Amino acid sequence: MTQNIYDTAEFFEGYSQMARSVHGLDGAPEWPALRALIPALAGSRVVDLGCGFGWFCRWAEAQGAAQVLGLDVSQNMLDRARATTPAGPIAYQRADLENLALPAAAYDLAYSSLTLHYIERLPELLAAIYRALTPGGHFVFSAEHPIYTAPAQPGFVQDATGRRVWPLNQYAVEGPRTTDWLAKGVIKQHRTLGTYLNQLIAAGFTITHVQEWAPTAEQLAAQPALDEERDRPMMVLVAATR
User: Fold this and answer.
1) Any idea what DSSP says for residue 140?
2) What is the Cα gyration radius of the chain?
3) What is the Cα–Cα distance from 234 to 146, expressed in whole angstroms?
4) Residue 160: which residues within 8 A CB-CB, separation 6 or more?
5) Bridge partners of 98?
């Protein structure tokens, strides 16, 4: 089962205070680039894998989606999503993405934001997503970039001179990484960028776009703290079709 770190009090409290939790999609600096990969949603059926507080689900409804399903392993996340979602075509369900079962050809878009790096059995999940999409359906996701997940402790360290450097990370060695992020013992699954892309291809997807995200000049001017994101890509954004 996927580690359910979001239902621990310490982690959930910290996560709830992040900009992307408080301000939703507008608080996520990668959102404009991710939004550009999403097809027109009028009349479409959408599934959000790792829906969190439901921000994308509500956005998809506002774009005209006819049916939206938000899935998350965290009851805390789902409770918040339901509490902030008016009655309408959005449904939320608790689901473990390590063992996802969706009806065949039921969705036109599968979307996932910063979730896949928690998934150990990624080939099985990709196969389930592929089956759940209609022919020509879209899969759009973001994940922590492998350069970011590779170190045992993501982030910079200082060498003996005080210079900011990256720790040795054994990028090519795939597998779980245990980190302290908002709480101790958070497990993320490190895999190379090539592995992500090749597993998509093996599942049958056609990859249409890959972006190693970095902030724009306009974003840097508005948010100088994003400057460190230019030192290495924090996220990878991918669009693919069935």
Assistant:
1) E
2) 18
3) 8
4) none
5) none
